[in-house]
């Protein structure tokens, strides 16, 4: 059954950490507004209440929210008909809703060793997927601890290595780290980047969290910042596209299909 037939109103928004309730209300209202009119923050609550009143809705909130702001947000929206849902995706312990709300906490499980290996293989180029990777399974699981993002990052890291012996060196180094966690994995992936790619990758930190940006616009931003220079007869835009492809191949940037046309956007993981 399609969710559009179940819920009359639905919205999903990702936020920078610890936004205030008015900011969250404003962004959701803006998404549900059919035209491009900017939604004033002071009118967001009233506008959202009108859109949700007596309608079965699904709101998905992705981002860290303080307990006070979370309760403020929930009390700012109307209680919908039976079956309406507010889903909060968070990395830490979820905040308790007001006592009038029935809530269920769903804790996502880590991947098993076999599932980790399957994901690792899927994120490799086709020419590497047929290799005998079973011998690396124990090392991959020990390093990633079944965390999907860690598996994806490790896959992107090792595929830049030409020789199998280099894979072994990477695994040995990561297993020797005092704490084999996501932070250390990200650190190693960043350190492994060529110098000219590091500034380009760090530029994602200047963009809003969990946003999508058109690839061409991103390359133009890199050009404006002075990160790129023409070389080997290639234009700066061409060099930028090469750098972006390298970041995508390393699984440091997600490639996503844009809604408006056949172009692609990119966002940092």
Identify the notable features of this structure and list them briefly.
three-stranded parallel sheet; Arc Repressor Mutant, subunit A; mainly alpha; three-stranded antiparallel sheet; 269 residues
Provide the fold topology.
Layout: H1 3-6, E1 9-14, H2 21-32, H3 41-52, E2 57-62, H4 67-75, E3 85-89, H5 113-122, H6 126-129, H7 137-144, H8 148-158, H9 164-175, H10 182-191, H11 195-202, E4 213-214, H12 215-225, H13 236-249, E5 253-257, E6 264-268
Parallel strand pairs: 1-2, 2-3
Antiparallel strand pairs: 4-6, 5-6
Helix pairs in contact: 2-3, 2-4, 5-7, 5-8, 7-8, 7-9, 8-10, 12-13
Q: What's the quick description here?
A:
The protein has helices at residues 3-6, 21-32, 41-52, 67-75, 113-122, 126-129, 137-144, 148-158, 164-175, 182-191, 195-202, 215-225, 236-249, and strands spanning 9-14, 57-62, 85-89, 213-214, 253-257, 264-268.
In words, what does this structure look like?
This protein has 269 residues and is mainly alpha-helical. The protein has three domains: 3-89; 113-191; 195-268, Arc Repressor Mutant, subunit A (Orthogonal Bundle), CATH 1.10.10. The protein is 46% helix and 11% strand. The protein has helices spanning 3-6, 21-32, 41-52, 67-75, 113-122, 126-129, 137-144, 148-158, 164-175, 182-191, 195-202, 215-225, 236-249; strands at residues 9-14, 57-62, 85-89, 213-214, 253-257, 264-268. The strands form two sheets. The chain has a three-stranded parallel beta sheet, covered by helices on one side. Strands 4-6-5 form a three-stranded antiparallel beta sheet. Helix 4 (67-75) links the parallel strand 2 and strand 3. The chain starts with a helix and ends with a strand. Keywords: Plant defense, Repeat. This is NB-ARC domain-containing protein. Residues 19-122 form the NB-ARC domain. It comes from Miscanthus lutarioriparius. GO terms for molecular function: ADP binding.
